[in-house]
Amino acid sequence: MSAQETEIRGIGHSVKRKEDARFIRGKGTYIDDIHLPGMLHMAILRSPFAHATINGVDASRAAAAPGVIAVVTGELMAQHNLAWMPTLSGDTEAVLATDKVRFQGQEVAAVIATDPYVAKDAVELIDVDYDPLGVVISPQQAMAEGAPLIRDEKEGQADNHIYHWESGDRDATDAAFASADTIVSLDTFYPRSHPSPLETCGCIADVDGATGQATIYMTSQAPHLIRTVFALVAGLPEENIRVISPDLGGGFGNKVPVYPGYVVATAASLLLGHPVKWIEDRSENLISTGFARDFHMHGEMALKSDGTMLGLRTSLLADEGAFHADAQPSKFKVGLFHIVTGSYALPAAHVEADGYYTNKAPGGVAYRCSFRVTEASYLIERLVQNAAYELGMDPADLRKKNFIPTDAFPYESATGFVYDSGDYHGAMDKALEMIGYDELRKEQEAKRAEGKLWGIGLASFTEVVGAGPHKDYDIIGVKMNDGAELRIHPTGKAILKISSKTQGQGHETTFAQIVAEELGIQPEDVKVQHGDTDNTPYGLGTYASRSTPTVGAATAMVSRRIAEKARKIAAHLLEVSEEDVEFERPTFSVKGAPDKAVTIQDVAFAAYTNFPDGMEAGLEGSYYYDPPNLTFPFGTYAVAVEVDPETGVWEVKRMVAVDDCGVRINPMIVEGQIHGGLTEGYGIAAMELITFDEAGNCIGSNFMDYLLPTAVETPRFELGETVTPSPHHPIGAKGVGESATVGSPAAYVNAVIDALWPLGVRNIDMPLTSAKVWEAIEAARATSAT
């Protein structure tokens, strides 16, 4: 095969990840690998109380310790108007506490020292006089009469309520319920969990007092947005702020918010004239940074006796922690939870939500999913599974009876989403075939006859990703559009600069493959640059499963824009009209004379050496993509489990996952993403939990208490796929997002409930620890005995 005939490894090729060459050799550059001349180190003093008045802070012993350069308190920050900062949800958050602390782990003071260990030790020398107050650890407590007021510093804030939000048609839903033969309800709690990335959060702030230039190395998934927030908080000119997000050791939404440590380090660098590094430890990360979930949900479904779904009514209480800082699109207070209608043709639906302050860390980030979609998918799939039992129907049959038909797309849901495309029956049928559903049900009956508890769980999910169209989607007023800049060098190599920041998804490979697909330049010849606000286009970053739907689209569009110019140059070189030029990667040829041709590399060289008169030199361009709609990946998961009736231990026997994310850019990377999401879904269902005692002490502040699945516990996954391209995305990609995290928790829980339903168990809130499952079995036995 000649050089020109070499296959272009564009979309659909499982190209090995380019970035892995440095990672597997230990050559990645993470925040703690960076050392600057004269750099100082910062450690933060955190509150041991969940709610307490601060009567005074005595930092004299810490300030006198050898190696300590400065101690920063809330009072000092207040002198520079930096004691409070805006959150990405339009609230305010204390940088360092001044009046009182509002959650255990809140930042109270910081020590700047010559050595990180000196700083850490000196923190223990700061004396704080606390006066403990009443503690609120749930929305139910927050809304109770006489509850302690958490945000008493806010003018006009008379209680702990933050927002009320609704979606759908209440009247139509009430009418649907009035005509129902059966109403099935479910109360469930999706508990607080934590993204717990391998690398914790940190930064190095380097502010030059002479020039005013601030260079901030930061573990951020959204460096451009953070730069804008810093300009608003610190009053620095935005052109003088450079945020560099180096290699990230995972993020999963945890590295989207602005944390107080970033602000304090930057202020300290400005005041002291030295770079200041802050790296949090694992307990700090778990106890104080952006959590996920923590939704108390109620769902009701109206059905006919034959299983036809008529309406859905949901309500929820959101625990937002001490500050509203969850980084949802401004218009949608509980994110995109109104996707709760899922994959079903529900004629009517109504959603209402209320958010409350509690004495817990703020957050509510998009943890391996789009905004709050995981919680929505869990509620509808648990509700549908229980409805099937109440009606005496097979759970697969009830779902298939009510799926949105393939010919109904684009489909407008009862809560206002316009689904782009879908084949829900196809995904379900494939999952059932892969797991051998009919035979598995027969095996289940045989096992039950032997006294064994076997269960089969299904979950059919529709995720909504790619936020989003500018008319509806912004964060603190900044529209959620993203961009790409592409330059083809004279030698035919390319550099692609993207507004999204990779956190381990393989952007340096997949986005190079998009360029390869469009222009015929091999992916290894395309350098992908990201994470540096001085050298990338503005954008909202990587989170909520939006990189491929937005930045991937921008990459395709800028490539096509360059291809248009390349065609004009090719016509000039071939001495024909532009209309007579055909392009088949990587070659431009004359129609009817294929031997008369030039390559994209020839065109690139000519763009700088031999371009037509009147044409601007060079071969580069930029594109900011404003999505016309969101994209809607979907799938069906099937799980088989066995539950030990004497211990409550449940074991996954089979796990089949069928995903449809539209066109797959790199199938290998997609499969890796799905494996990660399925593992996380298992972890949430089985073990992951951040909880609190009555005093507001965080239970889950280390990996002895906050359990993560290892290779020992993680079940084996069997993957399948269907392909239903998005009709409006330039390359047909819906984005794999983190659909596996969205869909799998309900499948695991449904399987356990399926095993225990004959005993009378109707629900167990996650995580399904063996103790909780055993307690449910014992309670069911006791009820049966009476």
Overall description:
This protein is an alpha+beta fold and 786 residues long. Helices cover 29% and strands 24% of the residues. The protein is built from 19 helices and 34 strands. The strands form ten sheets. Strands 3-7-1-14-11-12-13 form a seven-stranded mixed beta sheet. The protein has a five-stranded mixed beta sheet with strand order 9-17-16-15-10, with helices on both faces. Strands 20-30-31-34 form a four-stranded mixed beta sheet, with helices on both faces. The model has no long low-confidence stretch (mean pLDDT 96).
Describe the secondary-structure layout.
Layout: H1 20-23, E1 40-46, E2 52-58, H2 60-64, E3 68-73, H3 74-79, E4 84-86, E5 92-94, E6 100-101, E7 107-113, H4 116-123, E8 127-132, H5 139-142, E9 161-168, H6 170-178, E10 182-190, E11 202-207, E12 214-218, H7 223-234, E13 241-244, H8 260-272, E14 276-279, H9 282-288, E15 295-303, E16 309-319, E17 348-356, H10 373-391, H11 395-402, E18 411-412, E19 418-419, H12 424-435, H13 437-449, E20 453-462, E21 474-475, E22 478-479, E23 482-488, E24 494-498, H14 507-519, E25 526-529, H15 547-574, E26 581-584, E27 587-590, E28 593-599, H16 600-609, E29 620-625, E30 634-643, E31 650-660, H17 667-686, E32 691-692, E33 698-699, E34 718-721, H18 739-756, H19 770-785
Parallel strand pairs: 1-14, 12-13, 16-17, 24-25, 31-34
Antiparallel strand pairs: 1-7, 2-6, 2-8, 3-7, 4-5, 9-17, 10-15, 11-12, 11-14, 15-16, 18-19, 20-30, 21-22, 23-24, 23-29, 26-27, 27-28, 30-31, 32-33
Helix pairs in contact: 10-11, 10-18, 14-15, 15-16, 17-18
